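Good morning,

Attaching, inline, the C-alpha cells for the sequence recovery test we're adding to the shared suite. The designed sequence is right after.
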C-alpha cells in the first residue's frame, strides 16, 4: 500500500488538516488529486490474466482509496451481471485510462447507462444500486475513494433480470 497524506478541506478559510470529516466534495477533490499523480497509482496498476484486480493505495479509519484494473469484458459482478451497493459509504471514482460502462438505477427506478472516460468524476450515493464493466477492447484503470467503513459490496437481487445493455449507452443528465 502506498502511503500518502490524505488532506481534505475543512471548509473554513481554505485551510486543510489531516483526517477531517469527509464529505462528497472532499472525496471528489481526493480522487482528482490522486488521478493527477500517476506516480502514486501507476506502480500499483496490475493488468493480469484475470478480469479485474484491485489494489489499496490508502486506507485508514475514515477513507479508503484503491485502484482497479479492468481487462476487456471484466465487470464488478461475481457472478456476472450482479449489481451492488456500497451500504452507507459514499464512493467517488474516476477512470484514468480506458473507459467503463456504468449501469445504475435512479431514484425513480429507471436504468441509466453511462460510458465513463478519463476525467469524468462519478459519485456513488449510499445504497445506490449500480454495476460497472469494461465494455472496451483495451484494459481500463480506475481510481476509487470511499468513506469507511466500506462493508463488502452488497449484491442486489433485482426483481427482474438486471438489464445488460448491448447498444451504445444513452447519455443522462443526472446522477443519483
Amino acid at each position: 500500500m502506498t502511503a500518502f497524506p490524505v488532506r481534505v478541506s475543512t471548509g473554513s478559510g481554505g485551510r486543510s488538516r489531516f483526517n477531517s470529516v469527509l464529505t462528497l466534495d472532499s472525496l471528489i477533490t481526493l480522487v482528482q488529486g490522486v488521478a493527477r499523480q500517476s506516480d502514486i497509482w501507476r506502480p500499483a496498476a496490475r493488468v493480469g490474466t484475470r478480469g479485474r484486480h484491485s489494489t489499496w493505495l490508502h486506507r485508514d479509519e475514515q477513507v479508503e482509496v484503491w485502484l482497479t484494473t479492468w481487462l476487456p469484458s471484466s465487470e464488478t459482478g461475481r457472478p456476472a451481471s450482479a449489481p451492488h451497493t456500497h451500504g452507507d459509504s459514499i464512493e467517488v471514482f474516476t477512470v484514468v485510462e480506458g473507459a467503463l460502462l456504468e449501469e445504475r438505477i435512479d431514484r425513480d427506478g429507471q436504468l441509466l447507462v453511462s460510458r465513463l472516460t478519463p476525467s469524468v468524476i462519478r459519485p456513488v450515493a449510499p445504497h445506490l444500486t449500480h454495476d460497472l464493466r469494461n465494455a472496451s477492447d483495451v484494459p481500463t484503470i480506475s481510481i476509487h475513494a470511499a468513506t469507511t467503513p466500506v462493508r463488502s459490496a452488497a449484491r442486489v437481487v433485482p426483481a427482474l433480470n438486471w438489464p445488460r445493455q448491448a447498444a451504445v449507452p444513452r447519455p443522462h443528465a443526472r446522477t443519483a
